[in-house]
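Action item from last week, closing it out:
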Amino acid sequence: MWKNIIGQDKVIKILRSIHINNRLHHAFIFHGKKGVGKDALAIEFAKALNCENFDKVKGACDVCRTCTDIGKFQSRFVKFITSLPASKTDNVNDNVLQSLSTSDYEFLLSELEMKSKNLYYKVNIPKANTIRIDSIRQLIKEAYMTVSSKNKKVFIISDCDMMNPNTANSLLKILEEPPANTIIILTTSKLNSLLPTIVGRCQKIKFESLSKSDIKKYLKKINPELNETEADLFSEIAQGSLGTFQDLEIENYKIFRDAVIDALRNLMTAKYVSLNKSVSIITESKNKNLIKLALYILIIWFRDINTVYSGDESNIISQDLKDNILKFSKSYNANIFKIITEIEDVLRDIEFNVNPDLMFNKLLFDIKLNIKPT
């Protein structure tokens, strides 16, 4: 049902119109920021195309046998294709699932079960760094099998930018000569990395970032015990993407927030031994997602400082830290625009930085240069 989707009203309107008016293209590219519902809407669209009780307004019924099979990734009409680990055999003609080791196969099944319970869950299998060519060959084989004329075969290729050139060229063959009643949906957050010949044969549909209110609503739905302050805070950290929120391992938030605030306090008071201890808490795991979490915490801190500067204390995001924020704001004049720009630059560069301690310490001292005592 469309109500399973967070936001994306414009995309839902487009897909509903395409379906109702029978203007189906043989291939689509759902593109946009990661974690905004591209896979989720692809699955719901596949349900709508095959639902036994389809409603023009509500979409798929979500209760018929076809819908439930699709939702459980057990449908013979709908296949979900994702990156997989390397084959245990050199024979690429085997069924792609049969070529997986027992542990990889069981892991895949557990990940798909997680996604069946939460459409926004990101399937993540260890050492799965490419969409394999045998997955596409199996897609082609199944696409040309005959099914009932009332059904649509839908193949969803998640993160299709994970295809290597050989795999992409294999897919291109079926895009050039698509069989009847077959829809291929590619999802990606890296449209420019795809072969132009593939992009040119698909109908592109762009997904926008999710609004803070949409994310907040979702977070409270999956965690009813979340209070308003936490929901506001986490929806801000998500930066329009549930994928970002999930990657950041938010359960570490309060530990990291304390470490970040301690680091700022020690930085401004020149307590460098204590500063190094605070930074080590943030960087010792070498986990880039946790370091990103610390960087988002820094951004929120300085946005709250700017809110105080503008005279609107009611809009402070971290209300439980209001006293600390007010004290900092009275003690220092900070160039907020410059500081947040510095942090955002590090967020973009973090994937390429091999020394998180050096990176974080340099950032802190760059921040200090933009803060003056009152």
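Closing note: The first helix runs from residue 9 to 20.
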